[in-house]
């Protein structure tokens, strides 16, 4: 008989095991919200899953251990030891039901609750309960305890469209579940049992009673002290569901669209800085009318990391068209391209900050630019011309450089300018093209980083990529030295930030872009629809926002760097004669008799110097000779026509020889 009983028992066990093993499990790979995180892992924005629910990915390590302990103690104290079904709890629940004539406590384990959540099943009918037991037993065989706990933390309902512990803590407390108070933890333990009837915003009494029952149990079982439990009971309940974070919404939308299917996107942004910059823009447009918009980018010009990007003052502000990302919009840059043109002129040996340039009437084949105020100032230094943002001097420099060279340098910075007619003209120096705020910040970041910086990047983990060189370190420093001398808004410290403002034609765009020793910030203000804003100027409207942005970016400004060793710092009178006064194109590039000519090395030569000096041979011209390498004087007072100078170093170089009469010749070469 014992053998028969053992055989029957063995057969029954094998049948039961086979029944469990044949269980069709529901899907456990759950769709969770796409999350956009900042550089520190802080949530910037999340997107609901296809069903409209907020369901954020979570692991037990992400949750306050006290909440987990309270959850297991209240819902399933033998969770770590049972196999999915707790016979003790089932017998207790059945006994209480028979004694009281109604259900007093449930016998469901946490694993059974997970089974119900995954299948969206019922709890009251025996068939439903049996199915939950079968699925729970199968889950325990195929998953670890932590994996089952993770499923509960991901799927438990907490009212409304909040599903899972992270969605719950953001919805009710506006924070991650890493640290919870006893009152918060107790409410979150109680909510999933009846998520709609215990919602604290709709049924505060029911929510309070349920929370207090959890607190009382935790107090009895020693998980909370009497003082902790009493303080938790006195804690007010949340009276409404909080909105999910919506920081950098335009950038988040863009990155989510570019990386479909990627559930977690970590950006280089700093969430705290982003929040302060968004608040700054909201304050800046408050008195400028219902349609005034603004945008801002702050970046580390040493690493290329964007720390804040605000595309509008308010993403949901329909009157300001807040849904339009104005950091990407193509607008006229006004005068903000002038620093690049001056830097190129310094680099090419056409001018020096102390070079005199004439500000007077000009006409270039019918194009006669005027200064903003319509006045002329006569002879003025290049430094003063840039600080006053005069139009005529910069057009003269553009004519010398060639608009195509300016456009090529702009593109080398990583910018993608748009030309109305397709062919660059002199008007581009005054804002006659279209460009985005992001590209303008990229350009200024290159100047700030010594003439060549990294490309701006917003995705954490992307390898830094260098942008093209704009100008030499010496020319970049000269531009910064000029721009740091501009007048500053009231209350700001002078000389701490190199910056430039700009106002586009018709008062459609107001700009202010600047940098200190570490960061570059750009501000644009105007209307998203491109209509004029009467009376706006970059200096009046955008510059104060720029300086305030630096104040909110960090506690103290980083000092601007000292000049590179090769920088020529002299007065106008001490400059070499060819640099004392800017000469027009026909004087600089005409070929009068006996003009100097560089016969070696020839233009376009490629030389292997192996560290040796570079030999130059001249023909014609009047001594003494001045030699510039890559825009910097390297030899002056030279009277011989064959001489040597140190190699400019590997790569492409430009050599200019100027004779005593101001005539010049130029060659470009490559040194290996």
TrEMBL record:
EC code: 2.4.99.28
Top-level EC class as recorded in UniProt: transferase
Pathway named in the protein's UniProt entry: Cell wall biogenesis; peptidoglycan biosynthesis
Domain Penicillin-binding protein transpeptidase: 296-508
InterPro entries: Beta-lactam/transpept-like, Glyco_trans_51, Glycosyltr_51/Transpeptidase, Lysozyme-like_dom_sf, PBP_1c, PBP_C, PBP_transglycosylase, PCN-bd_Tpept
Enzymatic reactions: [GlcNAc-(1->4)-Mur2Ac(oyl-L-Ala-gamma-D-Glu-L-Lys-D-Ala-D-Ala)](n)-di-trans,octa-cis-undecaprenyl diphosphate + beta-D-GlcNAc-(1->4)-Mur2Ac(oyl-L-Ala-gamma-D-Glu-L-Lys-D-Ala-D-Ala)-di-trans,octa-cis-undecaprenyl diphosphate = [GlcNAc-(1->4)-Mur2Ac(oyl-L-Ala-gamma-D-Glu-L-Lys-D-Ala-D-Ala)](n+1)-di-trans,octa-cis-undecaprenyl diphosphate + di-trans,octa-cis-undecaprenyl diphosphate + H(+)
Domain Glycosyl transferase family: 51-219
Domain Penicillin-binding C-terminal: 589-668
Signal peptide: none
Claim: Mitochondrion is one of the keywords in the record: no
Gene3D superfamilies: Biosynthetic peptidoglycan transglycosylase-like, DD-peptidase/beta-lactamase superfamily
Keyword hit for rRNA-binding: no
Top-level division of the source organism's lineage: Bacteria
Keywords: Carboxypeptidase, Glycosyltransferase, Hydrolase, Multifunctional enzyme, Protease, Transferase
A Pfam family reported for this protein in Swiss-Prot or TrEMBL: Transgly
Family: In the N-terminal section; belongs to the glycosyltransferase 51 family.
Protein name: peptidoglycan glycosyltransferase
Species name: Leisingera aquaemixtae
